[in-house]
Please model this.
Amino acid sequence: MRVYREEEILEPRLQKVTCNQCGKELLVEEGIVKEGCFGVHYKFDYFSNKDGYIYNLDLCEECFDQWIRQFKVPVQIEETKEFL
Ligand SMILES: [Zn+2]
Model:
């Protein structure tokens, strides 16, 4: 869950990120998340029961790791070649 400063409507600055699973508040400095965070902004499309809804959520790195360990099929992990 992300909270932005309300007074900066044109360029909202990230103020706070809370893990939706455990409630941990992640470190945010200068509008940037400074630790591992799995942030999702996903719009479901046609053919789903959630068509027209956008889901926003954030998981801390620990909760992300716990979540994917539950998968029956392991997540495919690639090493990134470029860092921006
Ligand atoms: Zn968490």
Residues 2-69 form one domain. Helices lie at 61-69. The longest strand covers residues 37-43. Residues 19, 21-22, 24, 59-60, 62-63 surround zinc ion (CB under 6 Å).
